[in-house]
# Entry
Amino acid sequence: MTMNKIRPVILAVVIIFTAFLAYGLFTMPKPQPVDSEGFSSQRVLNDIEVISREHHSVAHPQERAAVRDYLVSRLESLGADTVRLFEYDSLTGPQNKHVVYEFDAVDILAEFAPASGKADQNTTYMMFVAHYDSRYSQPMPKDTVWSYGAADDGYGVGVILETVSQLLKERDCWNQGVKVLFTDAEEVGMLGMKSIWEKDNYVFDNVGFIINVEARGPWGPALLFETCPGNEKVMELYARATDYPFTYSLTTVVYSFMPNFTDFTIVKDDIPGMNFSTVADVNHYHTDLDNFSNVSARSVQHYGAQILPVAREYLSDASYSDKKALVADRDVTSFTIPALGLVKMSKNMYKILNVIIFVLFLLVFALEGLRGRIKASRVFRISGILLISTLGVLLLFEVCSWFCALACGARFKPFGVVAGVGFDNIAMIVMTILLIAGCKVFYYIFRRKSAREVTSMRSSAVANAIAQYSCSVLYGALILLFILSAALVFTLGENLMFLIPLTCATAALILWRLTGWKGWMPIATALILLHAYSFLYALAMALTIGAYGAVAMLAFLDVMVLIPMADIYVTSSRK
# Structure
C-alpha cells in the first residue's frame, strides 16, 4: 500500500472550499449601499438605527410610542392608502414570570391597494408581519438586561419597509394588494397579534398569504424556518421565485417541539404563509447586546434576497387573486444545499426516494460481501460499536456543555436553550475539532491494529487488510445511517441529516466499483460537507450549547462516513 501524495491535497481543498461555499461565499448576497436601485440593506440599517436607539419594551411606554410614531410616519411616506392604529387596553404579561407588566398595546396596520382601477372589495392581499416592541427585562447570570431590539425585531420591521418600498415601484403590475401589520407586545406572549386576531379579525378577511419576519440573533443567513400546514403551494412559490434560498422542512418539525412562538403561530393554521429568521446567536438575543453596533448588513440583505422576489411573484400573478390559491392539503419535503440550491418534493416522492436509496445500499452491501471485500459479521460489529459510540458522544458533549454553563454561572437545561455562556460559539468549535481529532485517532489506531493482524508480510496483503478495514468502517457507519433513516422517514417523515451522507456515500461506492475511479469519493465528500456545514451550523445556533450533544452526535456520524471515504481515496489499493 502507498499513499498518493496529491490526493490529500485535493481533499484538503475540497474541505476548505466547501466550507467557504456553505458559509456564504457565492451563496449569500452582498450588502447593497444606500443608493442602490434594488433592495438595500443600508437603507434598512438606517431605519434600525432609529428604532433601536432606546429600549422600547412594554415597560417603556414613551419610548415604544416614539418607535410607533416613527413607523407610522414611514408608512405614510411610502404612500399607504390608510394607516390605522388598533389599541388594546389594560393588558398584562408575562404571566409565568416574577415581574408582571401592565400596558396598552397598539398595533399598526397599513394598506397598499393595487394601482387605480384594479382594486375593489374582493381584492386579495398579502400581509407582512413583524413586531416593533423589544424584549422586556431578561435575567442573566450577572445582571438583568434589556434589549434594544435592533435585530429582534428591527430586522423584521426594517426589511418590511424596504421590501414594500421596492414593491411599490411595480405597483401598476399588482393584481393583489399589500397589508403591513406591525404588532405590539409580541414579546409578552404575542398579545398584540392575539388581540387583533380575536377582536378585529376582519382585518384578515381578504388576506391570502402572510410573511412573518423575525430575528433570533443578529448574524447568519436568514432561514425560512417555518411554513404553514399544507405548505405544498407555498413552497412551490418559494422555489420558483426566491433568490439565495435557505430552508429545511425539518426545521418546521423541530420548531413544533420547541417552546418558542412568534406572531405567525397565531395565524398559520388559517392563512398560508412563511416565517423567516436569523438563528445566531443566543447571547445577542433578548439581551442588551441586541443593539445597533451588532447588526449585520449581510444578514439583512439575505432577508431581502428571499422575501422580495416571493412577494413580487405573488403580487403580479393573477392566479393568486383567489384568496385560497395557496391553500393545500399536502406538505412537501424541502432542503437547501449551498451552491446547489433548493431540493423540493412531495412526502410520498421523498419516501419513494428513500426506498430506492435503501435498496441500492443493501444491494451494493450484499455484492461487496459476496465478493469477499467485506465480512458482514465484522461490519455489523462495527455498526454496533458506532451506535454505542454515538450515544457516548451525545452524553459526553452534553456533560462538556454543562461544565461550560457552570463556569459562567448560566442555568443549564439538558438539550434545551442555554444563554449566558459568553464563549459558547468558541466552545462548540473547539469541541467539534476535538471530536474530529478523536475520531481520526481511534480510526487509525484500529487501522494499524488490523494491519498488524495480517500474518503475511507481503505489502499487498497488508494493503488488502487496510482496504477491508476502511470499507468495513464505512459500511458499518452506513448501516447505522440506514437504520436511523428508515426509522425516521416512516415516523416523522424527515431524515435529511442521515439520508444525505447515506445517499452520497452509496452513490460514490457504486460508481467507484463500476468505473474504478476513486474521484467519486471527494465528490461525495463535497456534497456531504456542503449539507453538514450548513445544516449543523443552523442547528447548533438554534439549539445552542445546551443541546450541543445532539449536534455532536450528528457530526460524529458524518465524520465516521468521511474518514474511511478519505482513507479509501488517498490509498493506492483498489480493493
About this structure: Residues 6-23+351-570 form one domain. DSSP finds 16 helices and eleven strands in the chain. The CA atoms of residues 485 and 495 lie 5 Å apart.
